[in-house]
Every structure is written in structure tokens, then in C-alpha cells.
């Protein structure tokens, strides 16, 4: 008797799952889910260039930076960025020190303080490829190593070699050669 009850319960559960999973959609197209954009939204994090906000914005200024529009960021935060850069990097310890882009601390932090990802409309899109710098970002670009090199590497990337590489040289899995380009999960 107990076995029959288990069989009937299993059949009922399987039938219910099959019925719930069926639809009139013969094209296997996903059913659109309505999106509700009503309400109040607030930006929680500004991250145009990875790690810039994390490294250069002081903890007490995070909320203000995150809600400041990029066109106003340089005026409000460049001096904080410069102070934090000089405190952080021995490559900018002396007046006149520059990085591989030829930028001194003031010019470099002026570039970084406006935390947007620039995109070249008529050239190669890359974070850094040896020639092109900050013209966008390709999936395979080693963004953190480039940022470390520009912060710690000095004029020719040779200063502070132990601070100038995150030692992650590739993605865990190769990117795809066609859309959606991202590697599948493990």
C-alpha cells in the first residue's frame, strides 16, 4: 500500500512539472518579462576604469564620488587623487617624475579623476597595446597590470617591478571568437 502511494505521488509530481513547463510558444522564444522603470534610482558605484575609484578615492569621499557626474569629477577630486598617488607610488616621489605616458602626477590624476572609459571612434580599441593607450577596452586587455604600470612603473615601466604586475597573464578560459565572446562558465 505504501509503495502504491509513493508511485501515485511521483506520477502526480512529474505530471505537474510537465504541465507547468508547457506553453503555447512553439517557436521556443522566451516570453518577455515586463520591465518596470518607475521609481527612484541611485547610482551606487562609479567604475569607468577598473580600480581607479577603489584606489584613489578616500573612504570618506566614496559616496560623493559615486554620485558625481563625470564632467564634474576632475574639479572635485583631482587634488585628492594626486595626494593619494604621491603617497602610494614611489614613482611619483620626486617633483617632475612622470609615467610612461609622459604625465606628471597632476596631469595623470587629472586624466584618472574623470572616471570614464574613453573610446576611440577611429582607431584601435584597447586599454594598452604598446602603442595605443586608454582608447577603450578589449576583453583580453590586462587592465589592472596596465594601471599598475602607469602608477608604479615610472617613465619606462622599469621602476618598482614587484608593484607593476598583478601576475595574472590570461583569462581562466579563452574568449570565444564570435558573439557573445565571453568564455562559458566553468
From TrEMBL:
- This protein's name: DUF4331 domain-containing protein
Organism lineage reads as:
Bacteria, Pseudomonadati, Bacteroidota, Flavobacteriia, Flavobacteriales
Q: Which residues form the signal peptide?
A: 1-25
Q: Which UniProt keywords apply?
A: Signal
- Sorted alphabetically, which InterPro entries does this protein's record hold? DUF4331
Q: Which PROSITE patterns match?
A: PROKAR_LIPOPROTEIN (PS51257)
Species assigned in the record: Polaribacter aestuariivivens
Amino acid at each position: 500500500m505504501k509503495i502504491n502511494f509513493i508511485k501515485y505521488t511521483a506520477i502526480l509530481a512529474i505530471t505537474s512539472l510537465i504541465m507547468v513547463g508547457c506553453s503555447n510558444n512553439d517557436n521556443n522564444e522566451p516570453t518577455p518579462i515586463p520591465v518596470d522603470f518607475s521609481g527612484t534610482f541611485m547610482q551606487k558605484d562609479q567604475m569607468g576604469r577598473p580600480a581607479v575609484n577603489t584606489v584613489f578615492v578616500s573612504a570618506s569621499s566614496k559616496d560623493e564620488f559615486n554620485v558625481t557626474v563625470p564632467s564634474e569629477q576632475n574639479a572635485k577630486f583631482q587634488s585628492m587623487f594626486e595626494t593619494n598617488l604621491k603617497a602610494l607610488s614611489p614613482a611619483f616621489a620626486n617633483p617632475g617624475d612622470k609615467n610612461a605616458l609622459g604625465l606628471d602626477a597632476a596631469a595623470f590624476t587629472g586624466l584618472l579623476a574623470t572616471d570614464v572609459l574613453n573610446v576611440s571612434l577611429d582607431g584601435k580599441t584597447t586599454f594598452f597595446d604598446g602603442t595605443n593607450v586608454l582608447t577603450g577596452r578589449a576583453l583580453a586587455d590586462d587592465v589592472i597590470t596596465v594601471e599598475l604600470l602607469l602608477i608604479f612603473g615610472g617613465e619606462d615601466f622599469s621602476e618598482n617591478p614587484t608593484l607593476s604586475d598583478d601576475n595574472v597573464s590570461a583569462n581562466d578560459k579563452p574568449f570565444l571568437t564570435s558573439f557573445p565572446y565571453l568564455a562559458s562558465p566553468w
